[in-house]
Amino acid sequence: MARSHTAAPLALAALLLLSSGAAQAAPAAPAPDPLETERRLKKLEDAQAQAERALKTERLSDSEPDLVTRLKAVEYQTLSIQKQARQIEALEGITVGASLTSMVQRVGAAGNTDARAQSRANYRGDIAVTLPGGDMGNAEGSLFTQLRFGQGEGIALRPTYSSTPNTTAFQVSGVSNADSSFAILAQAWYQLTVPLPLDGFKPHSKERVEINVGKIDPFVFFDQNAAADDESTRFTNNVFVHNPLLDSGGDTGADAYGFAPGLRVAYRNERDASQAWGLSLGVFGSGPAANFSGSLGRPFVIAQAETSLRLWQGLAGTYRIYAWRNGRATDADGSVRRHAGWGLSADQRVGDAARLFGRYGQRISGHGSFDRALTLGGELAGNDWRRAADSLGLAFAWLPTGGAWRAATADGTLAGYAASGAERWAELYYRYRLNNRVDLTPDLQWVQRPAGDPRAASFTVVGLRAKVGF
User: pLDDT: is 6 or 65 the higher one?
Assistant: First the structure.
């Protein structure tokens, strides 16, 4: 026990001696050079000052520090992206559409009042712009404007009940110089779309109310037809574009170009997508009120009910019935009287590539050269001959002479003949899709007993239509 106590102090002394020797053997660290430290600090301060000066200007320079150049490049890219985002946001909801339609037609001597063959060309351009019109709670507003311009009135036929075989023809009236071409503000109206119920969740709404006010083409909202409503792509004779009593017969009372100031209110129910339906009412200026030159009294009023049904093998169809009244319509003798009537417009798919259409109209108050009209036809897409974008259209019209007009012309003095029977039209076209912007459409029209004249020979009108659309 005494030996172990003596050994412990000796071991401790040996360890202290060894550690002291090791410390004396390690080299001492050199002291920092004050001048080198000062140079490094000065270099950092100069670099910081140069960066601060470079950041004060937006210019890029080769003499700038690389870090500053990269920082500015990132900033410029960020600002550019933000600018583009603001531009996109500003343009959100704006849509623009434009089209140019041209047509050449020829009629033989039998169809012209001067007994000579005639050919004419025309063009018409349309530019449409839709702008956001602001929100009112869940209700959304939009503003629609349309400019129209063109030259050429088309061929002049002998008297017929149809107003024109070329509804694409457009020229500003009152211009004595045929070399001049002017544009008009065709339409300018505001629409407010209100989803229902008013306090409901908008994305889930299946009902809505639409309110339109401004200068309007009434046929945008009434008497529509999926197979016969666009003279620039389908049938071009006016009797097939709209109900003949309303357009060719003049019961809308619109201005010389087919537009009028007005108001339209509509309700649309799409709770059952397979049987959607709607109701609409329109009130439009008539006669001198249509071109803003007269009183708004005795307007053109039209009400329409429509529904979408699948009556043929589950294929979609749309059926419309409407009634109208115009307090300032024009009778066949030129006097201003109240006209009223009703009509039907239907289109129904009967196959993947085929669609049929029909219109009927009957005047129940007032008298025109014809007081009833029936048009039937169809359109067939070119699926079977591997031209799915092409279409073949054929339609027939029956316009019987009105009783009052038949009696007024019975002695042959008023019109130069005793009007009787029915004017009959047929139109055949083939729309060839040249590309996704251009259509070419050869068109053939035939008329029998024009204006109910039993002595008049039948004649044909041949034409070629071209349309460029964007």
Answer: 65
